Amino acid sequence: MEANTPRFYFVFLSLLLSSRFLVEGFSGEEEEEEKDIKITDFPHGFVFGVSTSAYQIEGAYLEGGKSLNNWDVFSRIQGNIKHGDNGYISVDDYHRYLEDTEIVHSLGVKAYRLSISWSRVLPEGRFGQVNPAGVMFYSNVIDKLLLKGIEPFLTIHHHDLPQELEDRYGAWLSPLMQEDFVHFAEICFKNFGDRVKYWMTINEPNLFANLAYMDGKYPPGRCSLPFGNCSVGNSDIEPLTVMHNMLLAHAKAAKLYRDHFQAIRLPKQGGSIGIVVSATMFEPLRDDPIDQEAANRASLDPLLFGDYPPEMRHYLGSNLPCFSPEETKYIEGSIDFIAVNHYTTLYAKDCLHSNCTAGADHAIKGYAYITGERDGVFIGEPTGMPECYVVPRGMENIVDYLKKRYHNMPMFVTENGYASLELQDAQMKNLLHDSKRIEFHKAYLAFLARAIRKGADVRGYFVWTLMDDFEWISGYRMRLGMYYVHPQTLNRIPKLSAQWYEGFLSSNGLNNKEATNASLLKDENAIVSEPVNETAEI
Ligand code: FCB
């Protein structure tokens, strides 16, 4: 890099939609943590919900006309998924959705976020017919939710896609995927749009592009050195191509919705549409402006401003695809709300002017080294998810940042959750006594409430997740659910966190202490021992 390079740049490791920015000192963390959060700390009409995704819970991988998808095929290859797990049966929500809707209802939430399995609705993408059994399944789920007074929040694409599209043209690496996605979205709008008012086009394009095409950990498992040792791929370029196609697919689907569905006012259609971003918060590693700059980049600009930020163009040069003037028009203002998935905060260290490990010194990583540790001290308490620490203040900071940068556009926190550390614990009853999960949600909610009090237009909060599920490459041993799922019977057993959430929502004030003392003994007896002394992976 030239010495006179402007001292600002994007952090590109989570690419386009990730939010990374500097924190100008934060005070008041203790004050928030001491406070016992209550539902009344949130504005009237604020929506509480719970979040899931199709592939992580449904199972029934070849039933009801569903075709093989990218995860079905990826899971077959030994070593790709921890313990050789797969989503073939998963927690069988496909057959148990009635029971699952009851559980959601019993929590007292007013919203449920789910996604549509692409290969269940369009087994061959736009090269085949719509599968009526697939449409019927989601129609039934939606009806059942509405009957219970629960608002469905629908993610159209959450990591899973028909293998057919991968085999035909390389899925997201090809611009053809934009047309396939728009077709899929249209089928969803047509079939569910009379009842679904909150749409999210794509879940975490930034995270998916990096995990699948830079690290090679998600299907199709493409990467190059030093990021990973895959047989094919180019980690410096492919994530950019994939992001570009995903952004355009999102923008085109949003335009279709706006032009042909949203405009048709109630009682049919007339909802709103957004995209889900993986929003990790970043703080400078050292008290040094260059680390602050490394942490100071948010990349939602293309969605709202119609092009990539100039800093990205500067560092990525011709590797960064261009938008045509027409595409820019599609992208500008293509969202009605931002759906924010927030779990943790990490440190960023500059790699332009300082030495960094291989990888972090690449443009695709924004020349930033990311870590959870400073001088041997973690940024927050570690969780069962690698690189994920408990840093409640990050919730306020991320929301505050998005508020400022995006003119206080409406936001929903569509994912926030805690991965248990009990993986190491021989006493499986600890999986049910998940008081740390309760503490996590209480603390993050307190900071969210504070951001709202300061004026952020946040309209809802969704816990990730309803029940322990197929956590992608970590399989079933990484648990974020409020319900434990028995590995043999697949019975759903409430954890303390489920009791806490229910109490919180019904304002009966069950606090953490009471919840911890609550008896779960009858449920504990139902749990069998599992070999669990291995760590998860993402
Ligand atoms: C998010 C994903 C979700 C789940 C959680 C733990 O990044 O959107 O599917 O895996 O992480």
Automatic annotation (TrEMBL):
GO molecular function, one term: beta-glucosidase activity
Keyword Hydrolase assigned: yes
Coiled-coil regions, chain positions: none
Alphabetical keyword list: Glycosidase, Hydrolase, Signal
A GO BP annotation: carbohydrate metabolic process
Signal peptide span: 1-25
Record-given protein name: Beta-glucosidase 18-like
